[in-house]
Specification:
This protein is of the alpha/beta class and about 325 residues long. It has 10 helices and 12 strands. It starts with about 20 loop residues before the first strand and ends in a 9-residue tail after the last helix.
């Protein structure tokens, strides 16, 4: 049973030696949620091993395109036109991230946006591990009504002044992370750390217009920007679906495998490994799905909900990695 987690009054006398030596609490605002979207502002709060703030930093970033949902983040084309490009701030960003665990709310999103920007700038993000505060709140069993940042902030009495402003969101998260970290240390909770693999591939393809250029009829023009990875279509699985995975058994070539949620290995790498093993990687979940891979089987994602409804077997990423090492060949004929 964890101690009461409603206050920030945790001060463990001994600190877990396995915990990281420093953290970079990050928030980025973006032009949208897709792979081709860009960062328009970023903030970093650097914390020491026990979650105390060392310093903070904020910058706007010129995305060289339409800024997207201005009504959410408040950054107009006019405001961003004189801002530096990502490659101009990448060195300072690197100094803020290097040697630290990246901490963010829904960390996989912030990490992937950052990794793509570094790939566009032809360099690597200096991040090797990330920690999602949503996952940490679940590990701590916090009684939150939902997984929004505002709910986490309210739980710890942190006042949010400017929602969806990178600097204030990063401040709020840093203030909520400190008591969460101390609670984890006091109760011997293992931190939900995930490996980060920097992206190194990108390609040019049409996207939205540069700031200052005239947009098309729906706000999108012919500006060509870089994308973190060439789009590609996996070949169809050559084997018939042998049915569902049975607990304790082996995977068999042709089984339909779906993925949901954050993974320590980049999702596309996991999907590549599954495809190479002869499995069918499914983008959605149906009654024909053989197995769902997720590190958060209690989440309310649509795939997890459907898996529960259909009785689809669920395993975590580590178990799936072990199963991939011994996939049964498809039946002949």
């Amino acid at each position: 049973m964890l101690e009461d987690l409603t206050t920030a009054a945790f001060s463990p006398t001994s600190w877990p030696t396995a915990y990281p030596k420093g953290y970079a609490v990050v928030d980025v605002e973006t032009t949208g949620l897709a792979r081709d979207d860009r960062i328009i502002s970023a903030a970093v709060y650097r914390l020491d091993a026990r979650g105390e703030v060392e310093d903070h930093w904020y910058t706007m970033v010129n995305p060289e395109r339409d800024p997207g949902p201005v009504w959410i983040h408040g950054l107009t084309s006019e405001a961003l036109e004189g801002a530096p490009l990502f490659q101009d701030i990448s060195e300072e960003f690197t100094a803020r991230l290097e040697g630290r665990v990246l901490v963010a709310h829904n960390a996989v999103f912030d990490w992937q946006m950052i990794a793509r920007e570094y790939a566009r700038a032809k360099c690597e993000a200096p991040v090797r591990q990330r920690l999602c505060t949503i996952a940490l709140s679940k590990e701590l069993g916090l009684p939150l009504p939902n997984h929004k940042l505002e709910s986490l902030a309210a739980h710890f009495g942190v006042v949010q002044r400017r929602a969806h402003h990178a600097l204030d969101d990063a401040r709020v998260l840093a203030e909520a992370f400190r008591p969460s970290l101390r609670a984890a240390a006091a109760n011997g909770v293992r931190l939900p750390l995930h490996e980060c693999r920097p992206l190194t591939e990108w390609s040019d393809r049409p996207a939205t217009p540069r700031i200052g250029q005239q947009a098309g009829p729906r706000g999108y023009g012919g500006y060509s920007q870089t994308s973190w990875r060439p789009s590609r279509k996996r070949p169809a699985c050559p084997y018939p679906n042998p049915g569902r995975y049975e607990a304790g058994g082996r995977l068999k070539q042709g089984m339909r495998v779906a993925f949901s949620g954050d993974t320590s290995t980049e999702r596309e790498l996991l999907e590549d490994r599954a495809t190479e093993a002869g499995l069918h990687v499914a983008t959605s979940l149906s009654r024909l799905t053989s197995l769902l891979v997720t590190n958060d089987p209690e989440s309310g994602t649509s795939k997890v909900v459907k898996a529960r409804q259909f009785g689809t077997p669920i395993v975590d990423e580590a178990a799936f990695g072990q199963l991939l090492a011994d996939v049964e060949p498809a039946s002949e004929g």
